[in-house]
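@here heads up, posting the sequence + SMILES for the zinc ion run so it's all in one place. Ping me if the SMILES looks off, I pulled it from an old spreadsheet.
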Amino acid sequence: MSVKRDYYEILEINRDASQSDIKKSFRSLARKFHPDKNPDDPESELKFKEVQEAYAILSNPTEKRKYDTYGHEGPGGSPFGPGGFQGVNISVEDLFGGGFESVFSSIFGSSSPRRNKRQRGSDLLVSHTIPFEALMNGCEDSLEFDVLKTCKDCNGLGTKNIEDVRDCPACDGRGRIQRIERLGPFTQQVVSDCQSCKGEGRIIQNPCPSCRGDGRSYQTKKVQFTVPPGIESGQRLRMSGYGESSKSENGESGHLYIEIDVQEHEWFERDGADLLMALPLSFTDLVLGTTVEIPHIDGELLKIKIPPGSKPSQTISIKNRGLPSNRTRNGRGSIMVLLKLDIPKKISRTFKKKLIEIKDEMSYSSEELEEKIRKEARSRRNS
Ligand SMILES: [Zn+2]
Ligand SMILES: [Zn+2]
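bot reply: prediction finished. Complex structure tokens:
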């Protein structure tokens, strides 16, 4: 665990900064580290949470005074409760307007109007398989999925009749319960979710049968998306707003993450933008050389030239016919072809006869054999 940084330092401001300076600095830093701008970047995520926490404290006059006096070691532990600061959901749009202020002012429960918890809906993860061929040019794709969305039968109200929605008597419709805790000479206001209404602030008497009062129900949705060329298995595409609807009235929907699974190719294996394959050849093709043509995923035939005198386990590299890459000049990786000697398991009688005819020509004298053994041994020692 690293040492907790000073809130003023985090927001890059002086101790005597005004509220408007604090806000200005927070807004620009939050925009910089917002997860929408830094997808899959844990460091920015941490920074984003850090500036949020600093702003939550410094924008609240009571908490700021406490922090100015005691620093992080104030009486009564973390002002956010035992779990510490949990982060809040603010969108990039919020950071342009003033939408984030109410989110922060509700954290400490001071004069919070009812149902102001603007919670983003949950994110959703689905996996989606694409054919290997799609890696070459990318593709337009779509998929159907089931997701919790605002119930159409009750428009998210949870009941068909608005009369059936009552303010929760336990919390007076606030969704939160405040109590004062005493700790030595200090008193502290502690706010927690109301148990009776689970923080909703309302109680529903005749719940909508489609959503059982939740206000959301599972619905089948379709999403269209673009798969970029050269994507790797396990990479995720993020579709903002396609996740679950928020439970709170004006909250945004969560994200849908599409995890791409690339189907295996019949013979290619992949190494980044390079494609690897093995090519079985007969002894004569290796000795005499040959050219083979096979279909390729870029639509053109792949011509592989095997020079005379090639050896098994040699590789032939064909440039610019691999997958799209931004590391090479014309933007494509290579194909690496590993040559293999293919020994037939069964041979016909006539073929066998022919082989026996040339056998003597291909065999070595004992001197030649010894020389070859010596050469092999030398090259093994030197390698
Ligand atoms: Zn409903
Ligand atoms: Zn309640």
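MO: The pocket of zinc ion (ligand 1) is lined by residues 151, 153-154, 208, 210-211 (CB under 6 Å).
MO: One more: The longest strand covers residues 139-150.
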